[in-house]
Amino acid sequence: MPEMATTEPHEGRAPMDMLRFATAGSVDDGKSTLIGRLLLDSKAIFEDQLEAVESTSQSKGYSYTDLALLTDGLRSEREQGITIDVAYRYFATPSRKFIIADTPGHIQYTRNMVTGASTADLGLVLVDARHGLTEQSRRHAVLLSLLRVPHLVLAVNKMDLVDWDEKVYEKIHNEFTQFATKLNVPDLEVIPISALQGDNVVNRSENTPWYHGPTLMHHLEHVHVASDRDLQDVRFPVQYVIRPKSDEYHDYRGYAGQVAGGVLKPGDEVVALPSGLPSRIKKIELFDKEIPEAFPPMSVTVHLEDDIDVSRGDMIARPKNAPKPSQDIDAMICWMTNEPLRPRQKLAIKHTTRTGRAMVKDVQYRLDINTLHRDQEAGELGLNEIGRVQLRTTVPLLCDPYSKNRTTGSFILIDEATGVTVGAGMINSGS
After folding, report:
1. Would the pTM count as exceeding 0.90?
2. Which domains does the chain have, with CATH numbers?
3. pLDDT given at position 14
């Protein structure tokens, strides 16, 4: 069978349920300790790793096992003075696989948080019960809302240091809930925890008889994310055309890619964009097996009944429900480099599997992510700033609003001279 892009197979069925979640919090809110606790209590670390952490904790004179040592990559990066990047951690329970994007909390690393949270199903914001909500807590919530992360958890950590006072929890709960009404937060859960002691992380705590909600792990295992993806609007960006040209696969012609929206089935009427040529789906393959349907985020190979012209960067969609090709793009952009984004600037743009060039027509405003104030006097965007920008592209983009589809509604901007990614965009609309 020819090689193709794939997700992990499971006898022709969908991959095992997976949750991507991004963590955010201020320094010393206990983020590393919480991740370490999740890894430990879900038995995702080896005995020798735990022994090493226990030994290091003892050598430092700690009276407890410092679980933050399990995820100390970011701290060592800080000490070396190099770029602070997103750290990804992986673990699994019998019911679900998890990918944690451990994002930096400082405002100067906003671009890194945007990168880590852009593909997340859930955002986990930590606050220190002693300090309550901070400016950083609110900023993290604003960014997660802006990135349309559909589920949000506020973990009120270090409750053991405020003697498990219900009033402290209720004050933070009410204050954050009220703040969240200003944002686009469809699903919010507030959980009192002690990452160090393990209370309400995996196991329910006896110290919170007044709390009747789920533990953090129970919520992560059971939060429903399948319906968050767009299963109505078929979007299949073609990543690669498979033409082996061998005797064994003499007439083989398949289109490999990752389903970005909708459900694809053999026999469905489709249209190839931007050409507009119609056809039907002949079959769908996952590895070397034919499957009855494909849906996000499966990576499959689609075969069409007609030998029409389809190439990388094209998109397969439904005839009556296709995105309109757009060259004038209205988007929110997070700028990621020291040289500011300015009008008339020319950049390369990558949208799904399609590439082209773009010119900045206008910077409409810069968004203050602490206050949500729109600075309409700003004529440019600096490093880590977010603003609304008008672009004109050389090739039509087959896009949807980001609020509708986070895959077809996003893009990156690239400096053509260096090949460095300098911006990430979320499309408001195109025309």
Report:
1. no
2. 18-228 (3.40.50.300), 236-317 (2.40.30.10), 325-430 (2.40.30.10)
3. 43
